[in-house]
Amino acid sequence: MFNFDFYNPTRxxxxxxxxxxxxxxxxxxxxxxxxxxxxxxxxxxxxxxxLTALNQRQVLEFGGIEPNPSYETLxxxxxxxxxxxxxxxxxxxxxxxxxxxxxxxxxxxxDGDARDILKTRGTVIKKALPFGxxxxxxxxxxxxxxxxxxxxxxxxxxxxxxSVHTFPQFSVLDPTKTYTLPTRQIANGVVDAFVHITEQxxxxxxxxxxxxxxxxxxxxxxxxxxxxxxxxxxxxxTRANLMWIATLALNGLIGAGVPQDxxxxxxxxxxxxxxxxxHARTLAIVLPAMxxxxxxxxxxxxxxxxxxxxxxxxxxxxxKIALAIAKTREFFERLGVDTSLSAYNISAEHIDNIIxxxxxxxxxxxxxxxxxxxxxxxxxxxxxL
Amino acid sequence: MFNFDFYNPTRxxxxxxxxxxxxxxxxxxxxxxxxxxxxxxxxxxxxxxxLTALNQRQVLEFGGIEPNPSYETLxxxxxxxxxxxxxxxxxxxxxxxxxxxxxxxxxxxxDGDARDILKTRGTVIKKALPFGxxxxxxxxxxxxxxxxxxxxxxxxxxxxxxSVHTFPQFSVLDPTKTYTLPTRQIANGVVDAFVHITEQxxxxxxxxxxxxxxxxxxxxxxxxxxxxxxxxxxxxxTRANLMWIATLALNGLIGAGVPQDxxxxxxxxxxxxxxxxxHARTLAIVLPAMxxxxxxxxxxxxxxxxxxxxxxxxxxxxxKIALAIAKTREFFERLGVDTSLSAYNISAEHIDNIIxxxxxxxxxxxxxxxxxxxxxxxxxxxxxL
Lengths: 385, 385
Fold this sequence. Notes:
Number of helices of chain A: 14
Number of domains of chain A: 2
Strand order of the largest sheet of chain A: 1-8-5-4-2-3
Largest sheet of chain A: 6 strands, parallel
CATH class of the largest domain in chain A: Mainly Alpha
Order of helices and strands of chain A: EEHHEHEHHEEEEHHHHHHHHH
Helix content of chain A: 40-55%
Oligomer: homodimer
CATH superfamily of the largest domain in chain A: Dehydroquinate synthase-like - alpha domain
Number of strands of chain A: 8
Structural class of chain A: alpha/beta
Shape of chain A: globular
CATH architecture of the largest domain in chain A: Up-down Bundle
């Protein structure tokens, strides 16, 4: 096991009705800016519920944070924070709104060009406004970690940042808030969580027994409930389990002390930036191809994945690995998520463009051993066709 | 799944050599009291390593905190904190030293009789001195939770307390610090962690998939390494896994949103207080008998335990449950931990005394459904003979 730091001070308020408890976790007399996305929080009544819970306070609203939140939009919120002297931010939405709120929290108190936060992956962040979240979509895990991803529209660049100052103070996880989501978003959430787990698990063994068992437990649980979550939108326990799985998939716990491989995400980010494919859907395309291309480097963990997650005990090692990858692909497809570029009308002639973007963004040595260079990315993308 | 709050702000510094990092996590200019136990931290050099890491600071020492730390001893430390105007406490030791330090942290700033903290299970705690820990023994999980147990010698009473103010700010988990521990203490640690997990897992199902998988993952890992940890004291990965398992066994995670049953612990506490049996050894005596007596109430989870943890797939339901309990008992015995009262020369005529103590301490409605009354305790103790 590698040495590690684990620190996660976010308070989780889990369960139906917990929005009512947010006020006591916000400093007295704080002036609050509530941030949200495209308006579904108005339609579902969640925004109203939040405002009711905050009713004794000065509250402003900022709507319109888009999926893959943009620097350009978020800077408008930064202006409001500064001019209105906001003390506390409250994100109401999914990962995009929470990621965007993290950026606003840091950029609002940053002296200098806020793009520095993106250029430095967050290392320039020395403080941030405190903020909380009310989660309405299980997927990214942003509700219990300190990272965010922001897109600069001008350059089609998705940039990740992290800081010890950008953990939510609290996050409300009320599974009933996900009842009215479109099936597509639930499927995306299952895939996103699944790939967050594999990026921290399918590398090479370092004898980290618990991290492996926890990753496997999350994957087994996701596989058990993934389709149910799609087809029984108001099954409380199913949605509750999905919500807690997605949070634990990326809160630092299963990645502590083990190698990590975020190459599927990095290639996926380029596909979203270039072609507008949903984040999770890019992952469903790239992951099976990545595992197949890198099956030698990942052999030990792929065999463990085959046995413990997919209960594959027959066949040669190569057959077990191939079957585990095939079952992963089938799981995504059963959720209605395509696993090839052709489903999005992307063909061989687009690959140069994607490779160029990876090069522009310095994504030339990815993976748990920095072996995923542009040649490997090209092999992966070719298999994705 | 039940509604729950999860909040755990303790920073974990995991791995060999991490003591060197403690200074940066203690406020500048803080005057530090280092608390420890019987002197083994001197013999092993850990105390010296800690003092070296703090070398620019004003540091005082308080040694002599006993296993099952006593109110009487800890109040001496409280006096030093007050008279010497200590700002920060640093526990160097195992669960007893850390539990004791939590009590000192709260009692030092409590206006009133510090026994109120024990009488109210910690609800009177409104603030506490900040503190950290350097863990030298994997067992209780105190390094990453907000609870402690303190014994009042005068009344032979063990009292638990909890407070949001008594989380360690940080804990160093360096597996090499456990290399020189006596085998008996390692065995005790394995049993203690095992029973912490079962107290949060072997109740009744509430469809909490991840909590179950995580509990099972911790149990499987403990069973995998328990004997290795005894027989290969300098196997880094084994001791590292044991350390992280024991921490995660009681940091709030696997118990979030599920029923809990601490009746084995409550009966065990009386056995320690009356007869001086090591805490973990009391658990190894009580748990198998408790599971056997309550096998109807716990049937669903015992079957899941039999299948997922002990891989028992043959036989009737009753046979599977009986075998799972027998395998649990055998595991403890293989670690050299006795599982009957007779091993400690306690016989039927002592049971009244134990029952009286449970009654004196109001332990008359224990368990996940408050069904463990004194009659059930008597059945359990009779089976423990």
